[in-house]
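Running this now, will post back.
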Amino acid sequence: MSATATLRTLLLVGDRFAGFAAQQDVLTVSQFIEEMRLGVYSWDSRPVRVRAGQGVTAEDADMVRDAALLLGLGDRLDLDFRAPALAGRGEAHKHIASNTLIADLRRDGADLFSATLRVHNDNELLIDHQTGEHVQGMVAVEAARQMFLAVSERYHACRYLDRSYYYVIESMNTDFENFLFPVDATIVYHALRAELDDPDRLSFAAEISLHQAGRRASITTVTYTAFDAPVIEAKEHRRAQFAVEHTVRNARVTVTPTKPVPAAV
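Update: finished.
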């Protein structure tokens, strides 16, 4: 490449998405730092433009900036990274922030809500299963689940601040239409039904779609109910007790031992 050529824009992804880095102009965090150390970007005085995709954390961004400073590229590195505004623990129902997939949640209309998908490099669904270039389908399913919880908690259940709700899925179906890749994606929640008058029992139906690169990657239809926690917890406890008693009762059934058959020699 000549000194006057325009330096290409690079897409940076977390190390978990090394398979996606087979694409031209895509690098993992570790690969980009290694290329800087090898002097790949030292010959040109133009800015090194880098856009962060999925799996890049604030710590990764700091590490990239520190490496650039150390190697004399600090004033040339143009790193487009913004820490997402994650849904809260009580909204996504996740205790560990790396497992939260919903960020920048907003209301776009009376029955329409949207958020950005955020896939952490150490998300629980990626740790033991990540192959190829795409993000596995269970991420889309879990994102839909977290989306309906976050929307319901932030915009509906909040009308009854003295209540704590327990969410029960009645039906959930996901159609996968396109591969999902570790780049920007938007989650859209379209409310089909929201029955909110009875504070003991809030009932919902929704379509939740995941969009990326001008295409719909998946669409999930779900019906679910938010029960006042004390009511459903008592019901859950009774059913758990029945399951235990049934299992223990069956375990006590005596099986008549059969006479052993001599082994052939």
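The chain has a mean pLDDT of 91. More later if anyone needs it.
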